[in-house]
Amino acid sequence: MTSNATAPHASASSVPFRTVLVANRGEIACRVIRTLTRLGIRSVAVYSDADRDAPHVALADVAVRLGPAPARDSYLSIEAIVEAARSTGAEAVHPGYGFLSENPALAEACAQAGIVFVGPGVHALEVMGDKITAKHAVAEYDVPIIPGIAEPGLTDDDLIAAADDIGFPVLVKPSAGGGGKGMQAVRSAAELPEALRTARRVAAAAFGDDTLFLERLVASPRHIEVQVLADRHGGIVHLGERECSLQRRHQKVIEEAPSPLLDAATRERIGAAACRVAASVGYTGAGTVEFLVSAEAPDEFFFMEMNTRLQVEHPVTELVTGLDLVEQQLRIAAGDPLAFGQDDVRLRGHAVEARVYAEDPERGFLPAAGRVLALREPVGEGVRVDSGIAAGIPIVTDYDPMLAKVIAWGEDRAEALARLRGALAGTSILGSVSNVAWLVDLISDDDVVAGRMDTTLIDRRFSERTPTPATEDELAAAALLAHLDRAQQPPAQVGPVWAAPTGWRLGRARPVRYDVDGVTVTVAGPAEGAMVAIGDGAASPASLRLREPASVGEPTVALLDYDGRMLRFDLARDGATVWLARDGRARALRFRDRAERLADRLAALDRGDAAAHPELRSPMPGTVVAVPVEPGARVETGDTLVVVEAMKMEHRLVAPVAGTVTVHVAPGDLVRLDQLVARVDADAADAADASTPSTDVPPGADVPAPQADAAPAPPAAAQR
Fold first, then answer.
1. pLDDT of 502-512, one tens digit each?
2. Handedness of CA 268, 271, 277, 279 (dihedral sign)
3. What's the CA gap between 510 and 524, in Å, rounded?
4. Which residues have a Cβ under 8 Å from the Cβ of 356 and sit 6 or more positions away?
């Protein structure tokens, strides 16, 4: 989608480079490549073995393999990236965001190879890459900073001693890196030692540097950042601010421009402060200066950090300014001066962005794997999608879980939010669980609509979502689809009268029963005009019509007329599983055969009425980063046994029962979904206690499967 704003005179007619390598993946690689294509610049993509079939590879003019799936062997290999640039004749490297985008070593290696790094110089990367050094640097330029302690080499004892002077609550922050990784909010002295240990471990693993510092935790904090552009000739402008207060575990989820909090005077002051931050390190290129603002005192702001790269949320700035920030980066890197000044920058309308993640809000936002069976991305006036997925490709769990960004522009904030709600509701990703429906609920919240937000809102009110069972509409649609499929594909050498599941026979017709995720759905009559009963409920009239996709990769449209209501679903099939999506919510419904139902019953009998199973299995594919218990040790219910990292997030797997632990993994091991990682053998007394039914099941525990009724069978074994 093109911007709705009127851009200042922002670009020259000359092409800044002939060939540019994009040292990234996913949606940002696709987004950069599209600008390169528009400018007539030859694009070079890089990929790991996990991304061989990824959209950015197909979109580029040339693609170069970096190495195997682990990032350290591919996207984080400076040598491989520089060699790829050399071998393809790339004059410049655009790092995107994440990975090596803020690594001075890549900028240095590019310079030594005679390749332009599309980003700031090494000095700016080094100063702003260390939050402690950055705070000292900007303070000299009259930029307000948050009270705290920020010195190199602080030990845990130093930080514990300083915390009392700062005053609780405090925020533990790694000096290196960004994206909220390793940050720990601490509200009492007793919590601080464990928070420091966790922060150091995460920082060391993510950034190779476990240096920490403390800041006072600001009450009702709003996260507001300012986009800046700076050329090599001393020109610096800001492009207004973005509000990024809607965050989950310090990770941004919704971003918008401009902020609904700031008035015109504060907007001017915070923009000027951001320009001073850029000047403090001789910054060049596109960068973002992040500030913390208390909702209780919106005219005060404090410097947090500077991101020396393009931000994930840059599209909202593009939509309200009319500028292509990637083009601006390229022209600045080529040595061009900015073609406009501060007075030329005008903000028009409002833009809001939502990040679409492969994660399951109903399972604690655990990363979700799968393969994209079918995909519908929204279109419409004021709607833009920056996507890194396509139908037919796997969702890679080795990297960040973000799949796409859905952005909407409007003349005002209300129109932008309304368009974004509609766009998300029209998004269907079939084959994996995503957070799309959760995003719709979030931006529909009364406080969000009113602009009453802070960085704790999601964690306080939207972080816990219990699993919701399939609706009657979904169960009816799935059963009718199976009924229709079987009617259209009778078994070989059997006449259609006998094969079609119509229920016809001599005498009274017999309904057909299907087991859909453990629920019996009874269908009587043909799919075009059946009577459907869910479980033990009364039968209702229903029919199903299918509309095949208009193009490859789109989902099939199912029109369900159920009990007098017409409903529309997007659907895709995957063996015995049917994926249905409606209003942004995708759900997998599996038809269980007799063998599966029998196995579930036997497992439940073997387990008895115990509230928790002794085996602990990984709820997602990932890497074991910590095993804080010794094999053979005694543990209590809820003790952390294994910590698994997936998609840049850590997940604690805890003891489901008290007893003696056996650990089957070690730090550094790669684990699969549902892989056994530990077992806790309860003592006799504990086992007896566990046999008492309980609804309080700790995280990570396995729960007895529901027992199905005896009769239902999947489509392949429908009863007639």
1. 555 555 557 89
2. negative
3. 7
4. 402, 403, 404, 405, 406, 427, 429, 434, 435, 436, 439
